[in-house]
Structure formats: C-alpha cells, structure tokens
TrEMBL record, chains A, B:
Gene3D superfamilies in UniProt: Anticodon-binding domain (3.40.50.800), Bira Bifunctional Protein, Domain 2 (3.30.930.10), YbaK/aminoacyl-tRNA synthetase-associated domain (3.90.960.10)
Protein name: Proline--tRNA ligase
GO molecular function: aminoacyl-tRNA deacylase activity; ATP binding; proline-tRNA ligase activity
Cellular component terms (Gene Ontology): cytosol
A Pfam family the protein falls into: HGTP_anticodon
Subunit text: Homodimer.
Entry similarity comment: Belongs to the class-II aminoacyl-tRNA synthetase family. ProS type 1 subfamily.
Organism for this UniProt entry: Flavimobilis soli
Record keywords, A-Z: Aminoacyl-tRNA synthetase, ATP-binding, Cytoplasm, Ligase, Nucleotide-binding, Protein biosynthesis
Length: 587, 587
C-alpha cells in the first residue's frame, strides 16, 4: 500500500448518484476522465481483468473463437445496414484527414458479417461463433451512474453464424448457457427476461438483468415464471364486446376539463353512470400526441389512444416505434394541426381510417381498446367530451401499439398470474438476429445441394465494465465494497498497525508467506498511517479477508476477519498463514 | 484446423509491400478493415497476447504499475500543452453530441500528468512509474506496410514521475533495461540509437530499432559504438579557416547553370581552380528554399545553405524545425519573393543578418559552412554566380541547421570513426521529458523542505503491434512465417496426411497427449485437404515444430521437423510425444 498507486477519498464525488460509482471512485478503482469516460487505476484494472478472464474462459468453453476488431471503422458497412443513420446522435462520428467518414463502433454486427463473408463460403464452415472483448463507444445523451451507462466501455460481443434456424437456436442456447455460467461464477444474481430487439433488429432476444433498485431497466415477473423487460411485455387482448344495444354516442358540455382527473370528477357530478358505480379514469380514452423523429431526420406526428388510467411509457413506446425516437408534441406542432384540440382530442377527428385522410396523423390504439369498449373521450372542441363512444362502431385505430405503462398486478401475457415490477441492470443481451445483417451485406454460403443460402446470425453481448459495476452494486455496505472472492483485487488484506517494528516484520512475513503459497495479498505497510485510517481503507477497498497484525502480537495472536462479518478470530501467529490459506482455498 | 477460424491465401494481398504485411494477411493472422486499420483473427490474437504478456511482465518487474486510460479524450488537456494544434492532421478529432471537442489519443502524457496531479502531492509519493497497454490512434498521411505504420495500433506507454533529475535518470535507466529484456526475450534484434525528441518535447531520447531493410528509420553507427537515428546526428563542426589572404569575391557570367552539375562543369571549363584540382559540387554553396507550416497554420519561408554535394534530408530538416512541417517552396512563393532568383540564389540577398531586413526570410546554414570557407554560389541574378565568396567575411547565417543528408563515411560526432548507414523499424522510444508537461499542467509536489517543486517526467513507448510485425519481418522465409518459439501461436503443428483413419487416430492421439503435457498444439485434422496444401499451410503459419503423421505410420514412425530446418527426423510412434515435449522444453 505504501507503493501502490491509489488514494482513497473520504468524500463522495459530487457527480456520483449510485453506490458503485461512489465507492469505485472513493476506493481508487476508477477515475473520471470526461463525462461517461473513465480511467482504470491499478486496483480497478485487476478486478476488470478477473471479470474478463471469466468471460473469456466461458466463451472458449462454449466453442467461441476470439478475434479483435478495430474500434475505428469506416462508414460504408454501417451505411449498408442503415445503422449509420439509425444510431442518430448516439454514434460518435468523425472524418479522417482525407475527409472520409468513420465511426467509433457501438457494436460490430456489420464487421463480423463481412469478415465471415470474406473468409467462408460453405455450409461446411458452419456453425461458427466468434467473440471479442473490446472497447466500445456510444454517445449517450445522459451518461450516468459511473460505469453503468458510460460512453467508452468494455463489451464482450459474440456473433454466431448458422445455415438454418435450428442451427441458430442451438448457437443461441450455447451462448445463453455460457452467460448463465459466467454470472454464476462471478457470483452475480441475474434474471433472464424476454426483450425487444431494438435497433439491433432480429426476431428474438433476451436480457440478463442484475436485480438492483438503481437499475435502468424495469422488468416484470410473475409467480408462474414469466419474466420480461417492460418493453417486451405484450398486453393480453380482451375479447371484443357486443355493442348492438349500446346507446348512441352523445357530446356533452364539460367546461374546464382538460385533464382526466377534472373530466372524471365532472362526469360523476353531472353525468353519473346508470349502474350506480362511479366513473373512473379507466372509463376515459386519453389521446396523447407524440412527435416522432425518424432516422433520416424526418418528423411525424402520431396520436396514441389509451385508457385514461394509464400513462404512456416512453421506453415502451420507443421500443414499439424503433428506430424512430419520440417525444411529446410541442406547441409548434399543435399549431400546425388545429384539428388536435389540446385537452379535448377525440378519435373521431384523428387517424387516417377515421378521417379518410391518407396523409393524416396516424392514430394508434392501446390493445385494450377492443371493439365494443365504450369511452368518455374528447369531442375535438374545447370544453366538450363525447360519452358512450364505442370502439369499432364510432371509431377505429390505424393500428395498435404497446405504449401504455405496465403496472404491478397486470396479468402476465402467458396467463401465469399477476405481474410484479422490479428494476435491474442490463448485464447481458442475446439476440437471434436472423438474416437481417447477412441479407444487407450479402453473406451467403453454399448449402449441401450447392445452392447459395443466406446465413442466419445471432449476437450476444456482455457489458464487461457494467458487470463490474453491477458486482459493486450488489456487494457493498456502508463502509465500502465487499467483493466476491473471485473478482476481488486480492484475497487477503494484511494490515500492520502501530509503530512497533516487530509488528511490521511479522506482518510482512505473513504477507510474504501467503504470497509464496499463491494467495493474492494486499499489504498495508504504510508506516505513519493510523490504525483507524487503515481499517477504514481496508473496508472501503473490500478485499474479502482482513488480517490485522497489531497489539495482539505481544500475546502471540493475529486477528483474522472476513470483510462482511463482525466476527474477529484470534489466531496463533504460527498458525495464521495456514489458517488464512485454508479460508482462501474454500472461496 | 477444421474448426479454426482461418483461411490461408495463396495470393499476396494487392496492397502489401512488405513481408510481414503479406504473410500475416496470407496466413490468416490479420485482415484489413480500413487503410492502416486491422482486424485480429484468432492466430494473430494469440501472438499478440504473447507479445503483450512479455511486455507486461517486464514492466511489472521494473516496478511499473498498470493502469488503463480511455482512448477517447477531451480536448482541454491537449490544448493546455499545445499538442491539440501541434499534432496537426495526424490527430483524429471529433465532436460529441454537445459539440464538445474530443480526440482519439495518439499518446497520453497529458492524462498521466493530470492523474498523478490529482492523486499525489508529496515527494514521498515518488518515484512512480505507471504504464498501460492500450489502443492508440494516429491519422497517418500514408499508412503503410500493414502493422508497421497503422492508424489504430496497440502501444505500451509508460510514464515516470520523479522529484529531481537524478531520479528521472534512474527511472529512465530502469525502463531502458526493461526494454532490453523485452526485446531479448522476444528474440528480436535491436539497436539503441540516440534520437531527437520530436513533438514529444524533452531533453534526451533514445530509440530501439529493429534492423530491417524495410524499416522507415535510417540510423547510423560507427565501429566505435556510436549509434543514432539520422535525425539525431550532429555534424562535427570544422575549425574556422583564416581568410585574411583570401581573394575578393567576384561575380562571373555563368550562362545556363541553374543546377549544381551544370555550374561545376561550367566553372571547370571557364574558371579553373588555381591549385590544379577540379572544382566539385562540394565547392559550391547550394541554397534551398523551404516553406514551413507552423502548428498555428501560419507559413514561413526559410533558405537553407549547404554544400552543393549534399541534399536536404527532409526528415532531418523537420526534426530541426519541429513542430513546424516543411516542404520545398512552390512557384507561388517564389513569385512573392522576387529577390529569390531560382537556380541562382546567393546568400548576399537572403537572410536577416545579410540584408538587414528584420522581417526577411531566415537564412540557416549547414554547420560545415564555418567562417573562412570559400564558395561558388548564386549571385542572385539569372546566369550569374559569385566565386570566392567567404563565409564570415561576405555573408553570415541567421543560425545553423542540421538539414543536410548524412552519408556513409561521414565522421561520427564522438570521433569513433566513420559512420555506416542502416535501416530499422522503430519498436521502442524512451524520452526524458523533463518538466515540460508537469509545467504546462501544474504537476507539483511538496519537497522534503515543504516547498512546491515541479515534477520531472519520462515517457516510454513500445509499439506492441509493430513489434509483432518486426518479429514477422525478422522471421520468415519464402514459404512463410518462422516464429520464434515464445511468440508462435502454438509450439507444435501436427499434420495428419492421407485418408487413412488410423493416421488421423494416431495424429489426434499425439495432439491430445502433447496438449495434456502443456504443449500448445495446432492440429491439422482437415479430412479432405491434400498433404501438399497442409504442408504449405504449416510453412505459411510458421509454428516452430511440425509433426507429420502419414505414410511412415505403417512402419511405426512419425516425422518431426523444425520449421526452419530441412532435416526430417523419423521418430518411433511411442517416442514421439516425449521427443517433441523435450524439444519444446528446450525452446
């Protein structure tokens, strides 16, 4: 410790919101170089190397072969698949001295596809899975939480190449199983959830989430075993309701009711239900105007109709509309569309099917708005609403959309019971890409009959630096980090306390003997640092075993304790090395 | 080999000029992704990992601690040291989504300086040496020779921090010694030459060159032990010559003599020497007009005066004028300076000291142009030259410059004999930076008296990917690569030939048993590939030992040979594993 390039900090960094960020900086593992861009100090690099080693071993065990692609790549392959545009401002773009376009790769589907196309030509060459552990770039709008959402980060990305769907399924399962082994070995709790493919394209994907209250991903699970990212939750569609005997729609004056809350109150006061119940927000149809930006920069307005008791979940909405990005429509856009009367929008004035205007604003409905459902909704005039408006009779949508928030208690789509919501950190994501990239880039091989067939692909990512952060989130207490033994920067933290030369000599002997037996030791040999500071540092750094050589030495004992336990064991000086070695072997 | 992601090529890639590039691509070690940007295939990555491991081990043995910096860095630190501008078009620059300036780091002096400033504050913290093995970027004007001059490449860069010059010298020597061990362990011949500091700044630097005819660096050495990069060669300055009895300068008509050759011929024909010898080019003073571009974009003309038998060496010139870049002046520039009469420029019309014009073109002299030397040179008018123009009497320079080419036979500056010239690949470069970066960025620590002192630094680089290329340059023959054992992608290449199942079974047994003994085996188990193709691939790939299981098996023998030898040894089947293992242990 007297030589190690590390300085622990007593104060939390000002920009640190989450424990992993706070503690990794305070304990001298990482250091901020720019927003979302970090430098790895010696202790951090040791942990990172251990995480990488586990990932690499399990990739190789799963039959994947390691390669390494550049981070700086030419535009053309990404142009061919449309991702140069689709990534929008998330992509770091630059020009070289000859004014040629380059990018810093956020992921490498294109390059792997082209490499395999370059080298392979026959079904006999497949299946093939390649991987790399590589530095990636993403110009996040809001880099946050330290390593959890960074702009330069380390990923393991793997890609599988198969001749048919069956092969892809097998390659996918092999990676899935490798991921389970990786996170198990790392001691990181995980949940596998169904996910949407997002910008990656493809047919099927699952995320590995590390449950954590600070996670950016919300996921749902049911007691019956269903689990999905909220973006992937499919709303069960209710049966249509007969509406032959439904009353006709009728417009009512509803002064001062631009919000759902005011509307419900007004309706209960002035137009009570006939069945004795109260109107609730769920009886209203809310119409939300959204402005989409397509990858080519073009803009489009859409209106989403959903039950008034649910908010639009922007992440679900964007997953449904990807690669377009969405935001609530602004005043300017309302001005351009006088038919959209803010606070009083109703389906009868919007939607191509309803208005007959082929160029009009699209109207997309929540799946719950099935034919026969009756709604109180805007009448497209200030202070007016329409009652008993029946879906399928009085209006239709131009399509449905999964945009409404998912709530605890909602039914699982597979009927396995009510959903509960939790948050998680995305630590892995596996995709069945199918033929999207192979088609765009012309990756074909000869099949057994000598016919050219397009290869089918999978892509599989582990956020290596994010995994390290997730480990820190899952393993800390108020005093600092509490690393699982296999990723800790050392096995044992030997602390010499006091000023007595005999103490330092004994501590050094313990450290040296443990090292000789293959135990990784961090030895705090700092001569003029108080015991209190040394203990605080040991707790902050989070090495799993702490050996204190100090006052007890006069009585022939050395203290051994586990970082996560309050128990202190006094071990005879001559036994301490064997004792500690045994504890380490049992890790 | 039937599973390995590799395809060997029979044809040289069209853009490959040098053996390492040609063979690394043909043998499936690397693949071009863009100009100067390469992808590492599994075999290449194995070799790279071995080179990196040696570098890392020797850095740690030398007391350096490993860290890892981002490649994507903000502009500000590089602005503070002036390198944002100095790097000119060699720097990859980009903007993030907030329009902030970033760069892809070509080297990390600034970041290391700031990190140490951030964490350390006392002389007690020093000495400190940090290193990283990291991907670096340089937008080369002419990326060439594969990995030798790339735009994305791997470097080991280390930085030392000391309180005083003595400490810096010790840190420098420790790195220098580590470099010697690294290249010795890698089996790579090297020469250490004195070098100039270039854009890095600082006081002293040495390069490690791997001698190679395709090297980009020319260096000199004398039998007496002097060695230097040509840029660093200091011309021995002759003694001044008394000129009291020298004849007065006289202008002569020399029609049609714009070149040195035509001038010498004319002078010998029309104005013969009085001592019976012939005039030679060495008697003429050539004045070369150069256009400099300074880092801030401003331009400047300078005239360099040197003996007519020597050319200007642009690399030496640029090293003398760094960070300015130079090129021969163009017609436009001559037009703006009518006093510069092309082909007939003489010192009397150029130079601030000669003309008295403080804003005029600077005139820089070769160190050989000492007072008393007499010259035939331009008279600043077409078809006119001046004879017996004496330096120090008739003209002076505004300074001297090391710009003339160095030639074989020139005297070594330290008097250790005539120089010979050779070419080398720069594989390492060590610098005593001194206080340049620490001053620019304010890195000070308290000294033993409690006074703030500026830290002195060194920087030390190994081009890791370039070392791999240098190894390939130094280790190949007409058939392919011939790796030194310690960096080869495997120790043994087992080849099964023919179609006999017994052969494949025996070969697999040998491969498996060798692997079990810790020998790294590449096993060519391809079922339908001819022996000729397999042998050619084995020679191309360059694994040091080749074991052929084939026809001999019927007679109970297996062939063992070294890649670089024509000798074939027939070993009894039961002995082959032990025999090969012994050879591998002896590597």
């Amino acid at each position: 410790m007297s030589q190690l390039f590390v300085r622990t900090l007593r104060e939390d960094p000002a920009d640190a919101e989450v424990a992993s960020h706070r503690l990794l900086v305070r304990a001298g593992y990482i250091r901020r170089a720019a927003p979302g861009i970090y430098t790895w100090l010696p202790l951090g690099l040791r942990v990172l190397a251990k995480v990488e080693a586990v990932v690499r071993e399990e990739m190789i065990a799963a039959g994947a072969q390691e390669v390494h692609f550049p981070a700086l790549l030419p535009r053309e392959p990404y142009e061919a698949t449309g991702r140069w545009a689709e990534y929008g401002p998330n992509l770091f773009r630059l020009k070289d001295r000859k004014d040629a376009d380059y990018l810093l790769a956020p992921t490498h589907e294109e390059m792997f596809t082209l490499l395999v196309k370059d080298l392979y030509s026959s079904y006999k060459d497949l299946p093939l899975t390649l991987f790399q552990i590589q530095t990636k770039y993403r110009d996040e709008a809001r880099p946050r939480a330290g390593l959890i959402r960074g702009r330069e980060f380390v990923m393991k990305d793997a890609y599988s190449f198969d001749i048919d769907d069956e092969g892809l399924e097998a390659s996918y399962q092999a990676q899935r199983a490798a991921y389970e082994r990786i996170f198990t070995r790392l001691g990181l709790e995980y949940v596998i959830v169904a996910a949407t493919a997002g910008a990656m394209g493809g047919s099927r994907s699952e995320e590995f989430l590390s449950p954590s209250p600070i996670g950016e991903d919300t996921f749902v699970r049911s007691a019956g075993g269903y689990a999905a990212n909220v973006e992937a939750v499919v709303t069960p569609v209710p049966d249509a309701i007969p509406f032959d005997d439904a009353p006709a729609a009728h417009v009512e004056d509803t002064p001062g009711t631009p919000t759902i809350e005011s509307l419900v109150a007004f309706a209960n006061a002035n137009h009570p239900r006939t069945d004795g119940r109260e109107w609730t927000a769920a009886d209203t149809l809310k119409n939300v105007v959204l402005s989409l930006t397509h990858p080519d920069g073009s803009k489009e307005l859409v209106v989403v109709g959903l039950p008034g008791d649910r908010e639009v979940d922007m992440k679900r909405l964007e997953a449904s509309l990807a690669p377009a990005e969405a935001e609530p429509a602004g005043e300017d856009e309302f001005k351009k569309h006088p038919e959209l009367v803010k606070g009083y929008i109703g389906p009868q004035a919007v939607g191509r099917a309803n208005t007959g205007d082929e160029e009009g604003v699209r109207y997309l409905l929540d799946p719950r708005v099935v034919p026969g459902t009756r709604w109180i909704t805007g009448a497209n005039a200030v202070d007016k609403h329409v009652f008993d408006l029946v879906a399928g009779r009085d209006f239709v949508g131009d399509g449905t959309i999964e945009a409404a928030e998912v709530r605890a208690g909602d039914p699982a789509p597979d009927g396995s019971g009510p959903l509960e919501l939790a948050r998680g950190i995305e630590i892995g994501h596996i995709f069945q890409l199918g033929r999207k990239y192979a088609e765009s880039l012309g990756l074909k091989v000869l099949d057994v009959n000598g016919k050219q067939v397009t290869v089918t692909m999978g892509s599989y990512g582990v956020g290596v630096t994010r995994v390290l952060a997730a480990l820190a989130e899952a393993n800390h207490d108020d005093s600092g980090l509490t690393w699982p033994a296999h990723v800790a920067p050392a096995h044992v933290h030997v602390v010499a306390t006091g000023k007595d030369a005999a103490v330092f000599a004994a501590a050094e002997k313990v450290a040296t003997e443990l090292s000789a037996r293959g135990v990784e030791v961090l030895y705090d040999d700092r001569p003029k640092v108080s015991p209190g500071v040394k203990f605080a540092d040991a707790e902050l750094l989070g090495v799993p075993l702490i050996v204190v050589v100090g006052r007890g030495l006069a009585d022939g004992v050395i203290e051994v304790r586990e970082r996560t336990s309050t128990e202190r064991v006094q071990v005879a000086v001559d036994d301490v090395v064997a004792h500690v070695e045994e504890l380490v072997r049992a890790f």
